[in-house]
Amino acid sequence: MSTRADRTFSNQHLEGNLKDHSVRSVGFTVSAQGLKLLFQVISITVLARLLQPEDFGLVAMVTIFTGLALAFMEGGLSMATIQRQHITHEQVSNLFWTNVGLGLLLGLIYIAASPLVAWVYGEDRLIEIMCALSLFFLIGGLSVQHEAILKRQMNFRAIAVIEVVSNLTSICVAIAMAWYGFGYWSLVGQQIASITMMSSLRWLAARWVPGRINRGSGVRSLLGFGMNLTGANFMGYFAVNVTPFTIGLVGGAQPLGLYERTFKLTSIPSSQLLPPVFNVFQSALARVANDAPRLRTAIISLASKIVLTTTFVSLYMVVTADLLVTVLLGKGWEEAVIIFQLLATFSVVTPITTFTAISLVAIGESRALLKWKTVTFFIMLAAVGIGSIWGVIGIVVAHAISGVFIRMPLFLLYSTRFLPITIFDHMRALVPGLLIGFATGLMLYALRMMYEPQNPLIALLLFGAVGAALYMVLSLSVRRTRMDIAELLGYVQTIWMRKSGAGKST
């Protein structure tokens, strides 16, 4: 058992060819995320036609607190398993039982708090929804460490398959329930189906069975790391969800439903495409955390490529917001257009700040991240409080503006105290891609003013193709981004050659 456990938690095989493992992991991840993105778009499009904005708003009122509790359930303990250079079976077993205990405790707290949440919103249906979703925490707590083991081993092929299967299963459950008239319960069923399938598959993939609680395993330092990271996740999640919480209080279920759907759409790049890729980056950065020159080079290189590959999507969403709402959400969602544009503008900075945060965690600076997330919370609280004077739109405007012009610049400056980079390194990595993205957005907007097909789907395809071509031409005209494109193409070639080689070998 000891030998098998040692093999499970050893990552020495990654040290010699870390870049190779990372490239292959990104290849698996991007392929899986392409499928998940397709499923997500289909889900949003179909459910928007089967359900009412109020249904999404009701569940959104509850999921604000669900995500908050999830930060506690995970306890930062998965990253403790990933980030630690050496870890034992006994230590991970103790972390497993800690996650299970947290899941059970949070489920009970969630049930007990449901009458209070229902009273705050003036909506009694929330009690039954919260009681049902309490299962989410118990089931989720059973597989936190199994996912961490897969990430520690950089087994992102298994993680990708698990996420695709779980995503597809939950979407099928939601659409089937909505079709048969279950209303908002279809969204509840979607979440429970997702976590159940995901937890089951993680156990099968990790092939690890936890042992008993062992008091002498030396797990205290891991719990300390986890507590700081949990605090950071808690403050960060609360800061983000100040906005929907305030919208629900000020406007009720209808505008919150509009916000929830548009947020879901505009955050697809940051919530669907990037997190699995960031998991790869975080595991890779953790392996070079003690080598400052390699860490600096990796952070600058990855940040530059992240901006290059995400900025155009965000600016494209801003320019074509009305077309996207028409095609993806259908009639009855016209009021969502202005919210969509504001959130799409904010989505430009999300990949940048998220990558900076995972860089801090990868080097073990969870306490530094906790301090910054606390500052972020108070900035958001002040911004949303001021914005609420002008109603729901004022709240969303405050959310977007404070993110672009206050929170992101300050966070980048703050991060230089802990990462081996300077503010000029940040600028060198980020500014070229951002400028190219904004220039492309302006040209697309000018094109819309001159010509637009009557069919909104054709218009989206036309502007997407023209915008991508313009973005590529501008990117190739700048030395920094041209080098990034060459490296990205090299990664694609490496992944393709490995896949071809694997195919021939079989």
UniProtKB/TrEMBL annotation:
Q: Is Zinc given among the entry's keywords?
A: no
Q: Which residues cross the membrane?
A: 34-52, 58-82, 94-120, 126-144, 156-182, 306-330, 336-363, 375-398, 404-423, 430-451, 457-478
Family matches, as InterPro entries: Poly_Biosynth_Transport
Name-wise, this protein is Lipopolysaccharide biosynthesis protein
Protein family according to the UniProt entry: Belongs to the polysaccharide synthase family.
Subcellular location, in the record's words? Cell membrane
Keywords, A to Z, come to: Cell membrane, Membrane, Transmembrane, Transmembrane helix
- Coarsely, its chief localization is membrane
What high-level taxonomic lineage is stated for the organism? Answer: Bacteria, Pseudomonadati, Pseudomonadota, Gammaproteobacteria, Pseudomonadales
Top-level taxon in the UniProt lineage: Bacteria
User: What membrane topology does the UniProt entry give?
Assistant: Multi-pass membrane protein
